[in-house]
């Protein structure tokens, strides 16, 4: 899966363990699905997953990793990806914008991205098959990008991986059905018949649309006007999320929690977020009884690489390389959280011994 600021790759076992400790859970809503790592893991664990995200690239990933059924889509996708891999490059918008004007993708790979994306559009594929092919293309582009981990900037000199050839791989699609929504979180939160709502909202100034604007453009297959050295889509300027605002985030979370009707909430947040642990506990206490699990965690890849300006030049010094991630588990039902605490204690004990 693609590199992603706020990815829960390292926290996945704990998140799944938390949800498995909750009684009689069948359906889980992943309200800010991002790369769909969590939704994919929960589907693999046997849950009926509903994944939602307002960004198009994230919706594509959710259609692939949550909604698509491997029994139906894997064989045609494998054949089609082989065909797409054989296409020669044909320079277009991606090669020009992200290979010449900006330097996210080497021109050679940009030309192949253009050719493959146009072919996917021309084929007018069924939604699940299209999603698998687009996911393969996004992940192939991610493996040969030349960035600091996010698309706020690109490196001054090409990263070694940027000169590798773009290579399509078959995504790890799982058998069985799932649901992928492309909605504002507040609208999706009102969905009925959900046992657990998993929330991993943006928590500070970093906008996922701005940080992954290249993937958004490839997923949409459009040719937007851009601005600045980073050549971001102009809609990155127009879209302002309350979750990226220190002033507005608490109200947004309170409104979201009020809208939810799930029996349980599991909320991921960071000590680097705009809402402190105690304040988040206070917000969630209006919904039900709250338990908090704290995890020491390495900071996102961009922080470990270093601080760079829009020209890709390293500037400044990173203050710290680790942070704390919180898992808040909220129950509307009595006598549930003692069992969750016991299950998480067993998990941590087993993890230390492993």
Write the layout of secondary structure elements.
Layout: H1 12-20, E1 27-30, H2 37-44, E2 48-52, H3 56-67, H4 70-85, H5 93-101, H6 107-123, H7 127-143, E3 179-181, H8 185-188, E4 196-199, H9 208-211, H10 213-220, E5 226-227, E6 232-233, H11 235-238, H12 249-259, E7 264-270, H13 277-285, E8 289-298, H14 301-305, E9 322-331, H15 337-353
Parallel strand pairs: 1-2, 1-4, 2-3, 4-7
Antiparallel strand pairs: 5-6, 7-9, 8-9
Number of domains: 1
Overall pLDDT metric: 91
Q: What is the oligomeric state here?
A: single chain
Question: Can you tell me the CATH class?
Answer: Alpha Beta
Fraction of residues in H or I helices: 40-55%
In sequence order, what are the helices and strands, one letter per element?
HEHEHHHHHEHEHHEEHHEHEHEH
The CATH architecture term is 3-Layer(aba) Sandwich
Which geometry do the CA atoms define?
globular
Structural class: alpha/beta
> What is the H level of CATH, i.e. the homologous superfamily?
Vaccinia Virus protein VP39
Trace the largest sheet across and list its strands: 3-2-1-4-7-9-8
Determine Rg (CA atoms, Å): 20 Å
Say what the CATH topology is.
Rossmann fold
- Count of beta strands: 9
- Amount of beta strand: 5-15%
The number of helical runs is 15
């Amino acid at each position: 899966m693609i590199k992603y600021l706020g990815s829960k790759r390292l926290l996945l076992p704990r998140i799944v363990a938390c949800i498995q400790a909750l009684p009689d859970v069948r359906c889980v809503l992943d309200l800010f699905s991002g790369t769909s790592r969590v939704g994919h893991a929960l589907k693999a664990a046997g849950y009926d997953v509903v994944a939602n995200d307002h960004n198009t690239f994230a919706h594509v990933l959710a259609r692939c990793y949550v909604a698509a059924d491997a029994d139906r889509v894997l064989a045609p996708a494998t054949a089609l990806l082989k065909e797409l891999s054989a296409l020669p490059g044909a320079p277009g918008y991606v090669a020009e914008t992200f290979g010449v004007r900006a330097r996210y993708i080497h021109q050679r790979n940009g030309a192949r991205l253009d050719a493959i994306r146009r072919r996917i559009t021309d084929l007018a594929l069924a939604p699940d098959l299209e999603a698998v092919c687009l996911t393969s293309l996004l992940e192939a582009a991610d493996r040969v990008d030349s960035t600091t981990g996010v698309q706020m900037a690109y490196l001054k000199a090409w990263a070694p991986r940027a000169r590798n050839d773009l290579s399509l791989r078959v995504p790890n699609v799982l058998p069985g059905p799932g649901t992928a929504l492309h909605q504002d979180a507040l609208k999706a939160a009102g969905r009925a018949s959900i046992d657990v709502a998993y929330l991993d909202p943006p928590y500070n100034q970093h906008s996922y649309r701005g940080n992954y604007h290249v993937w958004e453009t490839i997923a949409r297959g459009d040719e937007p006007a851009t601005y600045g050295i980073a050549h971001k889509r102009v809609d990155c300027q127009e879209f302002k999320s309350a979750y990226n605002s220190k002033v507005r985030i608490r109200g947004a979370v309170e409104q979201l929690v009020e809208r939810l009707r799930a029996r349980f909430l599991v909320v991921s947040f960071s000590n680097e977020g705009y809402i402190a642990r105690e304040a988040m506990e206070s917000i969630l206490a209006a919904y039900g009884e709250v338990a908090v699990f704290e995890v020491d965690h390495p900071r996102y890849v961009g922080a470990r690489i270093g601080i760079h300006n829009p020209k890709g030049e390293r500037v400044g010094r990173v203050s710290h390389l680790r942070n704390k991630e919180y898992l808040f588990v909220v129950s509307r039902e009595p006598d549930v959280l003692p069992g969750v605490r016991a299950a998480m204690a067993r998990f941590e004990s087993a993890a230390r011994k492993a």
